[in-house]
Amino acid sequence: MVPLLQVGALSFSSCFPSPRLHRYPLSRRHPSKPFTMAAKSDDPIREWILTEGKATEIKRISPIGGGCINLATRYDTDTGSFFVKTNRSIGPSMFEGEALGLKAMYETKTIRVPQPFKVGALPQGGSYIIMEYIEFGSSRGNQSILGRKLAEMHKAGKSATGFGFHVDNTIGSTPQINTWSSEWIEFYAEHRLGYQLKLAMKQYGDSTIYEKGQSLMKNMGQLFEGVVIEPCLLHGDLWSGNINSGRSGEPVILDPACYYGHNEAEFGMSWCAGFGASFYNSYFEVMPKQPGFEKRRDLYMLYHYLNHYNLFGSGYRSSAMSIIDNYLRILKS
Fold it and tell me: Is 69's pLDDT higher than 50?
């Protein structure tokens, strides 16, 4: 029997209204395809549910509100419920990246995430993903448990390949480049801050933030002195809209932008996540705090402020620029 679960409102990488759809192509490098493309049919979603999904009857199909990029739907069957997201404009690569991230987190057997089942192409264009449907509780759950479970995931999910991920994915609707690197500072500079700065230059002609950001990237290694950095599996987009709880109160995290990185980078959306003292206390009991954690916190927020600037406009520029200017004042050139 397919596990019964419910995924409620979907959210993508912002505390505010929806980002635009993809504006840049998403590259693919990984040869394996663990979420095999469905054979074309008039309704590949129904076909999968009634075959590999083990259902014999679809009793009800209900839209779920809250998504700003994809259409979300609940399929109730005689063997349980499925959660389905579709997008009529984007091919399967975006959903495959999400599925690979969910699968990686699911396999750590730590924090609860929806189990992904199928990614495929829609016959009239676009794509879909079928996953477990998790029944949510009435609250976002206990922050102390969330902190501990997240730390357990970071501790269990390690990569021998280095920093990056098997595929490029998305952060909101912005491509997130995950080319493997053996050096974290190099990876974060080039594929996180550097990529966002290039987008700001391309989109707004913002040479000021680009040049100051480049200067920060050259000198930010000073913030990591004495720090041991392991490639931990990160959710990558952990804000309040992507955190919920199951009916029994256990934390559930959704809509990832996964990659293997420095565990502290997970807190880059903390300005929009509502993490309190109990969260951090529980987290650091499992993953001890490294020297200079407080000095690096804004560096990881900067990536997300830059992404919001690129997605939503100038309202986020001042926050990003303030972080860059503050670091340039304290770092030695």
Answer: yes
pLDDT, tens only, 18-55: 333 333 333 334 434 444 444 446 899 999 999 999 99
In 235-316, which ranges are continuous DSSP H helix?
277-286, 293-312
* Strand, coil or helix: 312: helix
Q: Which two tokens stand for residue 187?
A: 């990876």
Going from N- to C-terminal start, the domains of the chain cover 143-330
**Whether residue 237 lies in the annotated active site:** yes
Rg, Å, the chain Cα set: 20
User: Rounded to an integer, what distance in angstroms lies between the CA atom of residue 239 and that of residue 197?
Assistant: 22
DSSP state of 19: P
Cite the DSSP H helix spans in 111-188.
143-156, 184-187
Is residue 249 left, alpha or beta, with left meaning phi > 0 and alpha meaning psi from -120 to 50? left
H or E element at residue 87: strand 80-87
d(CA 134, CA 255): 13
Selecting among 237, 255, 298, 325, the annotated active-site residue is 237
Query: What is the spatial distance between Cα 245 and Cα 255, in angstroms, rounded to a whole number?
Result: 14
Pick the CATH number of 143-330 from 3.90.650.10, 3.40.50.300, 3.90.1200.10, 2.160.10.10: 3.90.1200.10
Length of the chain in terms of residues written: 333
